[in-house]
Specification:
This protein is of the alpha+beta class. It has one domain. 13% of the residues lie in helices and 24% in strands.
Length: 257
């Protein structure tokens, strides 16, 4: 079945700052507009496809205060069609069982690119290509690993893919949703916030400047999350934007209260 057209311009950003002697901080922006991708699974019914998306009105917020200006996947791991679930199972074997903690990932050459942020965790990467880690979609080679804290004992939560081209094939079926964000806020040499107007969690660009920060535009990449960590796979939709068990992560607004 032909891939569904992406109707909204989608972009996600990964921006890098070199701090001190060779320390690189990479922000992977993870909030924004979601659009369906991938080919539809031949074994999935139309009802399942429709049930896999929850439309959220722009400008509203979820009860937990997280930004909700996009459509969101609602399918849990156990609800995925056979072909899509088989792909996720390959990831579980390759990553969830290989890197139970951040220390395990670091021993294999991964390094932390962000602190553990609200809803999305700490992002670990292996390579920096200019201002982006975008690569063609490769199921068994996600460019980002997600962990639930800042230290080496942080537990594995999931993976993230970043691609540079609109229309890149993702997982089988229209269940993975790509997202973008246009800029981030850097303060004191650290990226402290995604940029989002009227957010209870993140600074807007004007709030960033008012707080003494610097607005940094993001590259035009596309991103998805896959929550496959043993303690995370059952507590949120598998392709959710953020994970409710990670709402203790850093937020410049919540942490200042």
């Amino acid at each position: 079945m032909p891939r569904r057209d992406v109707s909204t311009a989608v972009q996600s950003l990964i921006t890098a700052l070199t701090l001190g002697a060779g320390v690189v901080t990479i922000l992977v922006a993870t909030t924004g507009v979601f659009t369906p991708s991938s080919t539809a699974d031949e074994g999935a019914s139309g009802a399942l496809d429709s049930a896999g998306v929850v439309a959220v009105d722009p400008g509203t917020h979820e009860a937990d205060g997280s930004a909700a200006d996009h459509a969101e996947s609602s399918l849990a791991y156990d609800e995925l069609p056979r072909a899509t679930k088989a792909e996720v199972d390959q990831l579980i074997v390759a990553y969830a069982r290989t890197y139970p903690t951040a220390a395990d990932a670091m021993e294999d050459g991964w390094f932390r690119g962000t602190r553990s942020l609200y809803g999305i965790g700490a992002h670990y990467i292996k390579e920096v290509r200019g201002l982006s880690v975008a690569v063609p979609f490769d199921l068994l080679h996600p460019p980002i690993l997600l962990f639930d804290g800042d230290g080496p004992d942080a537990k594995f939560a999931g993976v993230s893919y970043v691609v540079a081209e609109e229309g890149s094939e993702g997982f089988t079926g229209d269940y993975d949703f790509w997202h973008f964000h246009s800029s981030v806020c850097s303060q004191g040499g650290d990226i402290v916030s995604l940029s989002e107007d009227d957010s209870e969690i993140w600074y807007s660009e004007s709030e960033c400047v008012a707080a003494g920060g610097r607005v940094m535009p993001l590259a035009a990449d596309y991103m998805i999350h896959v929550w496959i960590g043993p303690e995370y796979i059952d507590d949120a939709p598998i392709f959710a934007h953020d994970h409710p068990e990670l709402y203790d992560g850093y937020s410049p607004k919540l942490d200042s209260q």
